[in-house]
């Protein structure tokens, strides 16, 4: 087995695991503020691992570099944190209730 196949396999497993963790966090977390961390953190990192694996695989197996995966990566790494920030700002603006004991809630309630 070639070294790139090992690297692609490890990145695919790591990416799939991170996406699974982010998805479970989205379902299991108790309130909106905590739930938002699953898609914006773990899922973004998981997709980055999958896209890096695709870039390595297609760069080795075909002639040339894979620009599609680079564009997708840039789009995801820019839009996911921005959309998370906008969702949090909207929740704060609408005074969405957080679970008791959520850190930082004192600062949110005073604003």
TrEMBL record:
* The keyword Membrane appears for this protein: yes
The UniProt entry's coiled-coil ranges are none
Q: What are this entry's molecular-function GO terms?
A: sodium:proton antiporter activity
Lineage, top-rank taxon, reads Bacteria
Q: Name one Pfam family in it.
A: PhaG_MnhG_YufB
Record keywords: Membrane, Transmembrane, Transmembrane helix
Per the UniProt record, which residue ranges are transmembrane?
6-27, 39-58, 70-88
PANTHER family per the UniProt record, alphabetical: ANTIPORTER SUBUNIT MNHG2-RELATED
Q: What is this protein called?
A: Monovalent cation/H+ antiporter subunit G
Organism, per UniProt? Catenovulum agarivorans DS-2
Q: Write the lineage as a comma-separated list.
A: Bacteria, Pseudomonadati, Pseudomonadota, Gammaproteobacteria, Alteromonadales
């Amino acid at each position: 087995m070639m070294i790139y196949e090992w690297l692609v396999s490890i990145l695919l497993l790591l990416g799939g695991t991170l996406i699974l963790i982010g998805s479970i966090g989205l379902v299991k977390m108790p309130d909106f503020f905590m739930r938002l961390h699953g898609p914006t953190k773990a899922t973004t990192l998981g997709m980055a691992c999958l896209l890096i694996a695709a870039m390595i695989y297609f760069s080795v197996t075909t002639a040339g570099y894979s620009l599609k995966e680079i564009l997708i990566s840039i789009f995801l790494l820019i839009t996911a944190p921005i959309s998370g920030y906008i969702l949090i700002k909207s929740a704060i603006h609408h005074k969405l209730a957080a679970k008791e004991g959520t850190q930082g809630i004192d600062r949110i309630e005073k604003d």
